[in-house]
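Worked example

This section walks through a single chain of length 335. The input is the sequence exactly as stored; nothing has been trimmed or padded.
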Amino acid sequence: MARPPSSATRIIQNLLSKHDHLSTQQIFQMSTENMRPILQPAHVISKDGRIRMKKVSNMREGRRPWIPMPTAPFPDHPFKSVSFLKRTILQSLESQGLIHKARIERPIETEDERQEAIQKAMKLTRKAERTALRLKEPVPPPRQPKTTVTEYAWKMGPRPELTEAERKEREDEGEFDEDFESERADRERSMRLYAASLENSKMRSNGVAGPSSGVDEVALRWDQAAKLEESFHRAKEIEAEQIAQRQTARREAYKIERDQRKRERAEDDASGRSEAVRAERKRIEALEAIEKYAQQTGEDVSGWYEELGIGQGETIPLSEEKEKRLRKKSGFGLR
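Given that input, the structure is written out below as C-alpha cells.
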C-alpha cells in the first residue's frame, strides 16, 4: 500500500476526485485503513506502579482515579482524529469554497428507516391538520412516507444555490429554518472567501499571467489551501514550543520558591522563631476569616479585631496564599 500524503488537504482532494461524494466517516476510514490507532488509557500509572489518584471534595473517600488527557488516535496522520478532521480540515476547505456538504437521497434499506419515515410523515400530517383547523381551512390529505433517506456528504466545489423547488420541499418538511438558513450563511461566507482568494491570486500574479482555464484556477486554490494548512501546523508547533518553555520556566520558578521557603524555615528553626511564625500565621488566618464573616453578614467585628491586636484604621496583614493570588491577578510574573 502506498504511503498516504503528508497533507490532509491533498488526501481529501484525492479522495473526492475519485468519488462523487463521501461522508466524514468514509473519508476518515479510507485514509486510516490498515493503521492501528493509539488506545486511550483509562488511568495514569505513577512511578511506583500504582494508579494515580486525585483528591476531590464531593466524594465519600475523597479520592478518585486521575483521568488522563485525551489523545488523538492517529497522532502521526494528518487527520489525527475525526473531530480534528471535521472541525478543522473540512471546515477550512468548506469556508474556502473548495468543498461543500450536500444532501444525498438514497433508497430506504432497513426496517428501522422505513418506520422512521412513517413516523415523520404522521408527525407532519398531524401538524398540517392542526394548522388547518386553527385557520379554519380544508384539512389536507395525509402525507405519504418518503421512500428515501436524506444523508449529508462532502462534494467537490462550492455550495450551489438552492432552487425554488428544493426550498419549498424543505419548508414542507420543516427543515427550512434550521437547515436552509445555516446553508445560506455558509454559502455567503464561502463566496466571500472565494472572491478574496481570487483577488489575492490576481494580485500575486501582478497581471503577468494570461487567461487561465477553470481547471488551473481550481488547482491554484487547492495549492493555496495546502499552503494554508502548512502555515497552520507551523503555528501550532511554535505554540507548543512556547507552552513548553513557559512550563519549564514555571517549574524553575516553583523550585526556586520552594528552596527559599526551606531556607527560611531552617533559619527560623535555628533562631528559635518557629513557634512565633506559626502563631502569626494562625493569627493572620483568623483575621481573614473574620473579614470574610463581616463581608457576608455585615456585623460589627471590631471587638474581635481588637482581641487579635488590630486597632481601628490599621491594615490587616495578608497571608502568603492571598499575596500569591493578588500577584497572579496583577498581570505580572509567569502564567
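What to look for: Residues 214-271 form the longest helix (58 residues).
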